[in-house]
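Async update (no meeting this week)

Hi team, since we skipped the sync, here's where things stand on the single-chain job. The sequence we agreed to prioritize is pasted below, unchanged from the tracker. I ran it this morning and attached the output directly underneath so nobody has to dig for it. Comments welcome in thread, and please keep replies under the output.
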Amino acid sequence: MKNLLLLAAFLITPLAHAGGGVEVPQEKWSFQGLQGKWDKDEIYRGYTVATQVCLACHSFKYINHRSLMRVGFTEAEVQTLAKALNMDINAKLISALDEASAKETYGKIPPDLSMMNKARAGGADYSHAVLVGYSEDPELIKHYLPEGVPQGAHFNKYFPGHAIAMPNPLSGPDMVTYHDGTSATVDQMSRDVSTFMQWTAEPERFERQHLGVYVLIYLFIFTILAFLTKRAIWKDIKKH
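Output:
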């Protein structure tokens, strides 16, 4: 749990400062572009990592299990997921770690992760990069940190300054078991939880995007009609 407490600390770091000049790789995501969408299986896998790893310390207070119905889950499915966590489907995803215990144990309240991907530049790219950016390769460490990793810190290629206090939260494969049999590699878990956090930050993304397309079509048709109306009116005026 202590390793995961610091998760949000690096997630709020601006992309412009990532890795002391190391460019964060731009990944391909299913939710990008005009053809993007929220993939139910990806969200489900990300939910698995979020609830089995992150929720130990962090909350997702802006969503609940019913919210998952927006990406294709049935009410029966969300009922089952919520029951497994002893939650009502309308209850927010709140960590069992209460504020008093958090302050006593860690000296601070773990930040909510619902909006974290939207709160800083880079979004899922940065989250994923840092989660897979840990390394114990001595040559790589020496390249970025000639004087070595500071005591109590851990090397991370993409974290600003390359020395991060948080031990690797995804320290090895198979930390979770996926519903669809997908192999829970570190990279896969990182991608899935990054996608899930992108969804929790903007669950209405594609509803808004699709509405925007209809608005543009309406404005285009309205412009044509207005132009034709103008031509008809001025045609009659010129005749007189």
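Quick observations from my side:
The domain at 2-203 is CATH 1.10.760.10 (Cytochrome Bc1 Complex; Chain D, domain 2).
The chain has two domains: 2-203, 204-240.
Reply here if anything looks off.
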